[in-house]
Amino acid sequence: MEHVEFFTLLLIVGGVLLLLLSMRSDQEAKQVSRFLDDNARQQTHETKFSLMGWLETAVPKSLASNQDEINEKFSAAGLYSTTYTHLYMPAKYAALIVGSALIYFALGSDDLTSMAAVLAVWVIAALILPDILLDSRIKAYRADVSGKLPYLIDLLAVCVQTGMTLESSFAYLAQEMKGFDPRMAKLVGKANDRAHIVGLDRSLDELYLHIPTSEMRSFVMTLKQSLQYGSSIYSVLTTLSADIREVNMLTLEEKIGKLAAKMSVPLILFIMVPIVILIAAPGVMRMMSGA
Fold first, then answer.
1. PANTHER family attached here (predicted)?
2. At 268, which helix (H) or strand (E)?
3. Domain ranges for the chain
4. Cβ distance 24 to 65 under 8 Å?
């Protein structure tokens, strides 16, 4: 009987995995039909109001199931090597199955309700938690690049002031920054490599898509204006660097200002409430003993 329940749970988990894989193949088929036949695309859109269409909107978009999307998310997190990215989804599903088996053998079949609850929590955590961690890594990487962007702007301004072009400045900084900031060096080197293929203007657009922050938008717009009008950008870059530093300082001051309000919550919970209890407890005890 225990083995029957275990295999039933495995079949449920396998059904969920097959459903996710079916969603992936369905999305790929829809994308192919859009490019091959416009009529087929319209027919697919009309006939897809079914269970799969509902699941496409119900399942969170953070569940990356396409290999290109996984590579893009790892690249957005600052992990440019795609050697092991193909193991991301198999590792996640393997952890799901192994964890489900361990939960079954650890809890047993005495309390099937609690085991099903723990198993459901584990399935949700195994499917969503890796993508949540990856999204947090992406946000941290973008914040780190935005914080270091003023130093890159200052170095680029110095290179431009010496007579170097923007293309040669990017190539020079990509080599020189490897010694003290490898992460920014990889970012600049990637932009420089793309500039040799699609041009600097398109490369700057891709750089902003890679780091979509307000600081990067100002930086990209400044460089694109220089490319379009041929104006000198040394003073503009130095002013932009100072403005970004000022904005970062204001953001830090805002966080410090919010810290006092956040500290008041534990102050009330762990200090004020016990003090009130200590003050009121003797009187309450005397009233209870007198009664």
1. INTEGRAL MEMBRANE PROTEIN-RELATED, PILUS ASSEMBLE PROTEIN
2. none
3. 1-31+62-110, 143-247
4. yes
